[in-house]
Amino acid sequence: MRSGLGAMAAIALLSCTSWGDSTSSCLRLTFAEQNQTHPVYSPSGQFIAFIEQDAPGDRGVIITRNGDRIGAAGRGGDRVTCSPSWDPTSTKVCWVTEQGALWTLDEDGTAASASLALPGTPRQVIWQPRGGRVLISTDVGIYSLPVDGSGPPRRLEVHANPRGFSPMSLSSDGGRLAYASDGAIYLTTSPTSPGRAIGSPDSQCHAYTGIWLAPRTDQAVVTGLDQRGKGKTRAFLMDVARGTMAPLDTLNLDADHVTWSTLADSWFALGAGGEILLYDGCGQLLRRLTCDDGAGEYPAFDPHAQCVVYCSSRQPAARDGRSAANLFAALLTSAPGA
User: Fold this and answer.
1) Do residues 270 and 251 touch, judged by C-beta distance below 8 A?
2) How confident is the model at residue 283 (pLDDT cuts 50, 70, 90)?
3) Sheet containing 85-86, strands listed edge to edge, beginning at the edge strand earlier in sequence
4) What DSSP character marks residue 156?
5) Which of 4, 233, 306, 325 could serve as 67's disulfide partner, Cβ 3.0–4.6 Å?
């Protein structure tokens, strides 16, 4: 079945969620019996990459924005717990496995893998904007290396953290790297400097757990464990230049993954307790994008700001009625900044 944003006549409207005077229409993009998670749009907006989790092994998958499958790659026994990362030209995507492999998959379906000689377990990969290199975080450090594995890795100077550095966030120009370490948030502009603390444990949170930099502004969304809220994960909108933070309304749900609009930095979406929430640049909650399912995770903004794709197990995928997470798109009724 062909489905997706470019073939809207063939798609059934699943449901509609009202929030004030705005509405969000949800469309289903994939129909698989395996869990599909961590979707990421290509910079061109023409493709979506995600991780497909299966008993024999996890694999990376590329589909068109219409839901047509292009290619997949993986190895038996592979386990992947992070998002794929696209190269700047939208021709290739990469991901890392916990078993120590770096995979690449071209838009024509060609795949390759390289073994990583890194200490610790790989947790996250980010394709750097220039030089054909990637950043990989493990539970003991952050490293820069050629994506084809042709050269030795370079270890970045970071603040020590026995619990790892993921998620890390790289600015769109590659000039700033932010990461969480031992309950604090750090920002660095040099591979030889661990950077400065831009968020430290305080009366609101006893441990910051993640940061997502806005593509082109000094804003970021930060998550942290609330020491007054029985372990709830809260979210804050940060002014990175000033180091100030304002709490976000997450409907009293645990905050998780964040995605920024690259077309206009004024909007971002946040996963919280199975819901996908949409905010403006001032941190005002605009509406809920999930369609009454309570099972939405890992939002990804379309570069053209037409929709937010996320994974959800809202409907059974297998013949025996079991639920598997598939990809859904929440259509935006107006573009960010409009």
Assistant:
1) no
2) very high
3) 85-86, 92-96, 101-106, 111-115
4) P
5) 4
197 vs 3, more confident: 197
pLDDT at 214: 93
Q: Are 181 and 158 in contact (CB under 8 A)?
A: yes
Place of tokens 């589909």: 63
Distance CA 302, CA 287 (A): 17
Q: What is the pTM of this model?
A: 0.88
CB 183 within 8 A of CB 226: no
Q: Assign 14 a pLDDT band (cuts: 50, 70, 90).
A: very low
β-pairing verdict for 122-127 and 111-115: unpaired
Task: Tell me how far apart the alpha carbons of residues 28 and 315 are, in angstroms, rounded to a whole number.
Answer: 10
Report the amino acid identity of residue 81: T
Angle (nearest 5°) at CA 260 between 164 and 283: 100
Indicate the helix (H) or strand (E) that contains 305: none
For the chain, count helices (H), then strands (E). 0, 29
CA distance 332 to 21: 13
Q: Residues near 334 by Cβ (< 8 Å), separated by ≥ 6?
A: none
Instruction: In whole angstroms, give the CA distance from residue 253 to residue 250.
Output: 6
Name the DSSP letter for residue 241.
T
Cα gap 224→204, rounded to integer Å: 9
Which two tokens mark 220? 């970021």
- Whether residue 167 contacts residue 212, with contact meaning beta carbons closer than 8 Å, is answered with yes
Whether 139 has a pLDDT exceeding 50, the answer reads: yes
The residues, any chain, with a CB within 8 Å of residue 124's CB and separated by 6 or more, are: 82, 83, 96, 136, 137, 165, 166, 167, 168
Beta strands in 88-181 (DSSP E): 92-96, 101-106, 111-115, 122-127, 133-138, 142-146, 154-155, 169-170, 177-181
Look up residue 57 and give its two tokens: 């092994």
Average pLDDT in the 259-272 region? 87
Burial status of residue 131 (CB atoms within 10 A of its CB: 0-12, 13-18, 19 or more): exposed
